[in-house]
Amino acid sequence: MKRIGPWSVTRRPGRLASGLLAAPLAFALALLPATAAHADTIRAQQWGLEALHTQQAWRTTKGKGITVAVLDTGVDATHPDLVGNVLKGKDLVGFGAKRGEQSWAEHGTAMAGIIAGHGHGAGNADGVLGVAPEAKILPVRVILEDGDPARKKARATRGNALAEGIRWAADHGADVINLSLGDDSKSAHPDPSEDAAVQYALKKGAVVVASAGNGGEEGDHISYPAAYPGVIAVTAVDRYGTRASFSTRRWYATVSAPGMDVVIANPDRDYYNGWGTSAASAFVSGAVALIRAAHPGLDPAQIKQLLEDTARNSPAGGRDDSRGFGLIDPAAAIRKGADVPQDDLRAVAYGRKYFGPGPTESEDDGSAAWAGPLAGGLGAVLLAAAVVLWRGRGGGRLSFRPGRRLGG
């Protein structure tokens, strides 16, 4: 994919008092030529949907009746790709950027689109299509965007927002809780209130999914909430099925999902090409929504093991720290789930163990069977960036903020 324009920049998330790092995805911006602005360009670049066999899964369900809580920076419920799919949520920060401002709901809207975008236009053929396009999004604002001037205040006063948000989501009908965020700094440590909130949600029947961390090139530090017991921790792979270099390698890795060159929606009505285990987590949350819709009687532990048992492109030996048990396959999980009695599966229990071994020695260089066809025509250069794919009629102001990539 040819980049047009000289600009390149990344966004650096700040830290909440609890140590959580927001995950707004690193951005490098480039405007595509007008000839590339056709709607088909967006849908054609959503390689992750094909990789996850969503067309097969959609023969059974598209997620209708399932609620996915997105604990993030907020979600733009008026985005054309999300209208009607976003429920009334909760703002647990209580201040910061407002609708229409640059630093409002960018990351959360991107994740919601990956999970439950339904597209727009004639036949919904335009824009972003999510993994579970008939699921509902329950937005819970627990962090602020990178460029929000109120971040300093949030760091000082709202460090408990994540734990509160998890409990609130579990109490308000969330079937799945997506946590595309985390702290993978050197000083990261488990927070008892967050851990307790995760266990509370699991006991109430909510599946908790989190990004494994983007520290693969910065020491593979343990990331929370991904490392809490019972969480489905998601690593990122590229369109060739290979672990993304930034994706953290740790003992808690459960499965992998697309995390490179992922098309994302934005409140400014532009579309971007982004990377991160944030996106990978959202793909898995969408997949879990499909499984729950097809098999509502399965509990979180059963769904977690289903994902492990049906993963494709598994590492040698069945699992490693780079990609967990392999690439998720929601269609296969739906098929296998039909044969699973509710009491047959048990979760892999970590007990109170938080600090496991470091990353595996060998790098994962295996490629998936779907890699070749998907890569054709898209080029071999994988950008650790986000690129403007299409500018809506309303346009949108782009801001450039230097910094290094962090977060989920």
TrEMBL record:
Keywords linked to the UniProt accession: Cell membrane, Hydrolase, Membrane, Protease, Serine protease, Signal, Transmembrane, Transmembrane helix
Record's bilayer topology term: Single-pass membrane protein
Top-level taxonomic group: Bacteria
Domain Peptidase S8/S53: residue ranges: 63-326
Signal peptide segment: 1-39
InterPro entries xref list: Peptidase_S8/S53_dom, Peptidase_S8/S53_dom_sf, Peptidase_S8_Asp-AS, Peptidase_S8_subtilisin-like, Peptidase_S8_subtilisin-rel, T7SS_pept_S8A_mycosin
A Pfam short name: Peptidase_S8
Annotated GO CC locations: plasma membrane
Location relative to the cell: Cell membrane
Transmembrane regions: 370-390
GO molecular function, one term: serine-type endopeptidase activity
PROSITE patterns listed in its UniProt record: SUBTILASE (PS51892), SUBTILASE_ASP (PS00136)
Similarity comment: family membership: Belongs to the peptidase S8 family.
Protein's name according to its UniProt entry: Thermophilic serine proteinase
Organism of provenance: Streptomyces jeddahensis
Record lineage: Bacteria, Bacillati, Actinomycetota, Actinomycetes, Kitasatosporales
